[in-house]
C-alpha cells in the first residue's frame, strides 16, 4: 500500500487565521539544563494547518472534540477536482460520482503549502450539505482554511454541514494528489474541551 501525507507542516512559518494565536514551539527544558532530555511545549490555535472542527466551534451547545466518534476520520474517501469552482454547489457536485465514499475531499488547488494565509477562498454552498448527506457522506474535507468564505460571520456552510451530520476537515494539502478513491486517516486528538484539533492526515491506496 502506498501512502501520501496530506497534512500541512507545523512550524514558525505556518500561516494562521488573522489575529489568531501564532504557532509556537519552544523547549521548556533543554538537554543542557536537565542533563538527560529536551522537553518541548507547543502553543497554537486548534484551527492551524490541517485540522478538524468540532461542532462546539460554531455552536456553544455542540459536541466537543472528545465527544466525536473516530470512525468518521478513517475510511474510504474520494478526492474530487473542483479547481475551477469559486463556490462548490450541489449542482456542481452532481457532475461527479462519489463511488459510495462516505468521505469527500475537495481539491481546489488554491492554497499551496508555504503560501501566506489566503485573502479569499472558494467556499461551500450550503446546498452542497444536503446533497452530500443524501449520498451518505459523513465527512467533508477541503484544502483551504474554512468551508465558508473567510469574512463570513454566520458560517452557513459549517451549520448546514452540521445539520446534516457531516463533519469538517480543513487545511488539507492535496497538492499533487490525483483525484480518485483512497483510504483516509485523519485522527484528531482527544482534547476534552476542544472546539477542534490538529490532525495528521494521510491517504493510502493500492497501486
Ligand atoms: N471557521 C474557521 C475558523 C474561524 O472562523 C476563526 C478561527 C480563528 C479565529 C477567528 C475565526 N473566526 C472569526 O470570526 C475554521 O473552522 O477553521
Ligand atoms: Zn477550523
Ligand atoms: Zn471550520
From TrEMBL:
Binds 2 zinc ions per subunit. The active site is at 57 (proton donor/acceptor). Signal peptide: none annotated. Zn(2+) 2 binds at residues 53, 158, 170. Its EC number is 3.5.1.9. InterPro entries: KFase/CYL, KFase_sf, Kynurenine_formamidase_bac. Pfam families: Cyclase (PF04199). The keyword Iron does not apply. Belongs to the Cyclase 1 superfamily. KynB family. Catalyzes the hydrolysis of N-formyl-L-kynurenine to L-kynurenine, the second step in the kynurenine pathway of tryptophan degradation. HAMAP family: KynB. PANTHER family: CYCLASE-LIKE PROTEIN 2, KYNURENINE FORMAMIDASE. This is Kynurenine formamidase.
